[in-house]
Amino acid sequence: MSSDKNNDLPHGSILIRRGPYPEFTWPAILVGWALGILIAISISYAALKLGFSIEGSELAAILGWGILRGLMRRTSILENNINQTIASAVNGASSGIMFSVPALFILSKKPGLESVADFNVPLMVFACIAGAFIGLAFVIPLRKQMIDFERLPYPGGIAVATILKSPGAGIHKSIMLFGAAIVSAIVYLIITNFGATEEVNYEVGKYLKIPDLYNVVFFGSLMTIGVGFLSGKGGFWFGAGGFICYWLLSPILAQYAGADIQALVETPNAMRGKIYKPTGIGMLIGAAIGGIIMAFPLIRSAIGSMSKRQDSAKSVAQGDEMPIKLLAAAVVIGAVLLVVLAYQSAPDMTIGKALLMALLGTLWIWIAGVIVAECIGRTNWSPLSGMTLIAITILVVIANSGMDKPQTIVSSLVVGAAICLAISQASDMMLDLKSGYLVGAIPRRQQLAQFVGAWLGPIVVITLMFVLEKGAQPPAGVEKEDTTSVAEAPVDTGEMVVEYGIGSDEMPAAQAMALASVIEGLVDGNVPTYRYSAAALLGLLLAVSGLGGIGVMVALGFYMPFNIVLTYTIGCILRIVCDKTAGKRFSEEVGIPIAAGLIVGEALVGVGIAVKKVLSEYLNSGSETTAMIIDVANQIAPFVG
To answer: For the segment 610-636, what is each residue's pLDDT rounded down to a tens digit?
Structure first.
């Protein structure tokens, strides 16, 4: 590996480089891993709160310049490109896992399914890593066709390349990002009383004398504002979904609905539980199906790309790409490993069923990964949740004979999580290869960098989920405090009601909740079509409207607590106003780094508070392991001083 020695030079002197330009170096790898962990934790935490994930490549490029150039005095654009590739590969698990695995924690809170949360963690991690490697091995041979020949735009890749080409601006952006993160962390600590309060809401509507049915309550979260700012106009439909519920439908229902609904209108939480939340889940399912339908025109192009793989493979001899034989071996090894992991996922799993699930899963990774890469390349929109929903539905149908419900659910989600992560990594790889193409990177090195980062993400994100789930649970023997008023008592809707942890209003995990609802219906043999059909049709119509992703965004607005939607909308409005008044350049150079910092700061403090709760409970549990740890610490303390 090469190094970059660009120390302070006399003014006007010219730096003469000898040897290869620094690209795949240890600093790039180590910084990429570190930033990948930071970004994966932040975006995964935000995804559990807001129901959707955001891309981390741009954030990694900004932070990369702050560290590589600002602190380490390294100036190589290609080195930072490798850094952001590794970091975004680690972060690929935030969407790949957050749309699937949290369903296990949600379903475990349903009577009779408590054991699904006790899944084999190492086995799940290895399945996700195997899926990631299969997805990468399938999509890498398509690079020349999609990027060199078809010249797909990949807007996200263009944005990252722009940052990579502006090292000076990158340093300033990273300083603003870190500053905003500090402010966000301090504010979050203050408003939550250093973690004593889990969620803070501001009932502005009461002060302004606005009727309760409009639900004007803001969520105390700078992170949510930051995500709204990053989304900008693209996030408009998320906010629109919530406003349709409480500012349009609730007033209409208050006037014209039956007496039972009219009695709920003045209690927004009850309205959400009875009507809006189930509607949102149905719309998410319909939007997922609609996303697949909308991808049909791209499937033809994707198949054309696959048919030209052999032509693209000729460049392997030039040394620009990873060898086809090596990638084929990775697919075979990954598929075999997936068979073994599926077989080990449940005691009653048969080898034949495991083989079928793994083979279908591998085939779906190939098809879905290429389709999603094409969608991202042309529209910057990904039907990831739809692809995952369809895959897991098929897996549940296969596994649902000869095994009990918990085993069916766990085995399906082990393979399903591998598929979801594979699709996520495939789309991220192509986006990063686009940025590399624009800055003159060597594809083979960037492809290797993706593999170097992909294995770490599942470990980080799955660990984070356990920490957040455990940290939100009441201590052993202590029931969760009931802060629900009589007027807002839970309404029996037939839906799963999650009071704490993942799936609760504090961490809604909306897309995982929709997946959990579908799985529950499938294993019970009672898919509630009557409950979801109309909403699913609406979500499907929105999805095929031609506005990529609108169905999912509106559905999330219906599902999510309106206090989060309102706060998120503040960020969207700030972005729109900033674009029109200060200009888009100001938004990109100043607004986006600050917004990203707001996400990172609050997320890290939120995770830190959860870690503190888990450690506190563990250390106070009086277990033999705890006593041993304390004894060892006491013995070491005198030597430490």
So the answer is: 888 878 776 666 555 555 555 545 554
